[in-house]
Amino acid sequence: MPARFEMPEDHPHVALITIERPEQANALDPETLRDLAAHWRNVNEDETIRVAILTGAGDRVFCSGMDMKKTIPVSQAFARGERVDPLDFEGLRAVGHATLVKQPLRVPLIAAINGHARAGGFDLMLASQIRYAVPTATFALEEVALGLFPTGQATVALPRQIAGVHAAQLLYTAEPVDAERALAMGLLNELVPAEELLGRAFRTADRIASNAPLAVQATLRGVRELEGMDLENAYVAQEAMGRPLRKTEDAREAQRAFLEKRAPRFVGR
Questions:
Q1: Rounded CA gap, 153 and 139, in Å?
Q2: Looking at CB atoms within 10 Å, which of 40, 44, 80, 139 has the fewest?
């Protein structure tokens, strides 16, 4: 499979998804798009998963975006009304789910960016909440240089995540920025040596997974839904989101654990 799904035994409740096409710059061909969409669906349906990590295979590219030899020609043929292979068509239909535009995750996503993140790879990074990158990584949105509109996460999410002037530079110039510049723009949490990248991501994932899962998921949902609301309605909405958590078994367990001076054992109820 060009996108691999794992549940490492040493990291309970953590899913690791790896784009496994290093010889093709981890480009998103129709099969990879179908795989990614299926893996994200699995993350959303498996209640034992509390956090996910996305990375790329190899030491050069995280994801170079849509496959210029496979996906882009099929997309253009379909736009012209031409018949395309059914499996390729399924890959095109999966784009929105694969890039998490149509299928946001119910759990936090950590991006372990092992190399260059371009176009659709940049979109996948934008779908994550926490991002670690190797110092050699570069970042670019190249669609306008190819005569295309960036229809993934970029035009919607990027201006909400970083300052508008930085978003404009990335969207309109199509020029790459290096990892130091991306960190300064606020795109990344931290630069990490390549040999430590996955370890850093897993440490954060394990920390998230150790918290009450219903509370983490509600907080993630709250950040998404409260964005853009006026303050008065946002405060009302957050109270409505938080109220049910006070009645959960996990909330009672946290209180018992505090009194008994031990780590809580959360069960997601």
A1: 14
A2: 80
C-alpha distances (whole Å) from 59 to each of 56, 115, 193 are 8, 6, 11
Contacts 24+ apart (CB under 8 A), 17-22: 17/43, 17/52, 17/53, 17/54, 17/55, 18/54, 18/55, 18/56, 18/57, 19/54, 19/55, 19/56, 19/57, 19/62, 19/63, 20/57, 21/57, 22/56, 22/57, 22/58, 22/60, 22/61
Q: Do 182 and 243 fall within a single domain?
A: no
Regarding pTM above 0.90, the answer is yes
The residue segments making up the domain with residue 230 are: 213-260
**Which one, of 12, 169, 37, 190, lies nearest residue 103 by Cα?**
37
CATH number at residue 48: 3.90.226.10
